[in-house]
């Protein structure tokens, strides 16, 4: 590229684009090289910099402006810049020995339980199920709608399961005390409520199931914005071969790479090489819902005790499973993400989705009322 075009490009960048639209500052000392530039009709303008050799500046938004350079009017498209990674050449190839070396740590101290549920964990049948729902302390409405729909005491008896909510700590506990007294289904762990503490709450959940709720045969973990089709429990409980040890079921993904966009400072999904040095994650099941035998949960917790934490709960569970050579398997139509509630109801009816995620309180109630009415009509 000619020196004049480089100067024009640099002026466009430093005087106009950089102050308003870029997230990574570049200077003349960077000797950046514009890759594509149409001076009189700037439609594309990408560049790289030696300071960020593995990224390319890309436009994600544009606005047309007239720019005067040396008396020449240039019609330019000013675009919002975003850096995107080039092929990740510094990440290691994921292997089980490498993951074990990276994740290994000294044995962690057990997490204290500040509140234990009054309800007993075991049910009469040896093939009973425990369902733990991770919830924020402030999410009382979400817990209430679950208690009034698929998680009500009548359904727990009918479908042979127990339901418990796992919460963290907050400063104001006035409403919590009343909830604990009324329902007796709260497990409070000594962990402050935070997005990045979800992993610690999950570890505490596995700890509680292992140490204090080992009687049930099956263990489910769910979020508090889901609807659960209880008929699925019958399939598991009545089929000795459906769910074996050393396998985790859910809606799972395989070979997913970490999100490493360089402009993602503050983005909770960004993962640096230091945080995770491998090119892909191990297979894992999505956090809204997954299940396993209690024996498998016990093995998972024992490994968690000597495994460093990670920022994403579902990925972390997949890491621990990988270290133990526990299989991660997708169940067809297990988790469905809500888009349109009317279409959703039809999909649940036709395809038999077991867990529906991302629901409002009204959505959960609507699904429950519709499915419950349908069930009563069939068995009238």
What would you say this structure looks like, in words?
It holds the Pfam family Galactosyl_T. This protein has 2 domains: 3-85, no CATH class; 96-378, Spore Coat Polysaccharide Biosynthesis Protein SpsA, Chain A (Alpha-Beta Complex). Helices cover 33% and strands 26% of the residues. It has helices at residues 3-21, 96-103, 140-148, 153-158, 174-183, 198-212, 231-237, 294-304, 313-323, 341-351, 361-378; strands at 33-34, 41-42, 47-49, 52-69, 72-85, 113-115, 129-134, 161-169, 186-192, 218-223, 226-228, 247-253, 284-293, 327-330, 335-337, 355-357. The strands form 3 sheets. Strands 6-9-8-7-10-13-12-14 form an 8-stranded mixed β-sheet, sandwiched between helices. Helix 6 (198-212) packs across helix 8 (294-304). The chain is globular and about 55 Å long.
Relevant terms:
single chain, 380 residues, alpha/beta, Spore Coat Polysaccharide Biosynthesis Protein SpsA, Chain A, eight-stranded mixed beta sheet, globular
């Amino acid at each position: 590229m000619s020196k004049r075009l480089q100067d024009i490009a640099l002026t466009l960048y430093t005087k106009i684009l950089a102050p308003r639209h870029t997230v990574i500052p570049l200077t003349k000392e960077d000797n950046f090289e514009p890759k594509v530039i149409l001076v009189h009709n700037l439609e594309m303008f990408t560049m790289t910099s030696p300071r960020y050799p593995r990224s390319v500046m890309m436009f994600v938004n544009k606005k047309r402006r007239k720019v005067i350079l040396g008396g020449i009017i240039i019609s330019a498209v000013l675009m919002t810049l975003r850096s995107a990674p080039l092929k990740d050449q510094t990440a290691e190839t994921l292997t089980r020995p490498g993951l074990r070396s990276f994740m290994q740590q000294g044995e962690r101290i057990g997490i204290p339980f500040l509140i234990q549920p009054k309800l007993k964990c075991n049910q009469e049948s040896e093939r009973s199920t425990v369902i733990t729902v991770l919830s924020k302390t402030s999410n009382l409405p979400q817990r209430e709608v679950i208690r009034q729909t698929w998680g009500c005491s009548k359904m727990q008896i009918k479908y042979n399961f127990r339901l418990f909510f796992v919460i963290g700590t907050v400063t104001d506990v006035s409403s919590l005390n009343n909830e604990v007294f009324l329902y007796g289904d709260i497990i409070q762990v000594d962990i402050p409520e935070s997005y990045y503490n979800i992993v610690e709450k999950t570890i505490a959940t596995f700890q509680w199931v292992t140490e204090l709720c080992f009687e049930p045969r099956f263990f489910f973990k769910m979020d508090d914005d889901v609807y659960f089709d209880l008929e699925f429990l019958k399939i598991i409980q009545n089929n000795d071969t459906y769910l074996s040890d050393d396998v985790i079921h859910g809606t799972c993904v395989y070979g997913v790479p970490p999100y490493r966009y360089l402009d993602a400072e503050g983005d909770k999904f960004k993962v640096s090489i230091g945080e995770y040095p491998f090119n892909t994650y191990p297979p894992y099941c999505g956090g809204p819902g997954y299940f396993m035998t209690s024996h498998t949960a016990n093995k998972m917790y024992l490994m968690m005790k000597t495994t460093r934490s990670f920022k994403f709960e579902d990925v972390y569970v997949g890491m621990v499973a990988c270290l133990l050579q526990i299989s991660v398997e997708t169940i067809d139509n297990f988790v469905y993400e809500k888009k349109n509630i009317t279409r959703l109801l039809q999909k649940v009816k036709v395809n038999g989705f077991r867990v529906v995620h991302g629901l409002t309180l009204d959505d959960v109630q609507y699904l429950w009322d519709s499915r419950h009415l349908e069930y009563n009509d069939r068995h009238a």
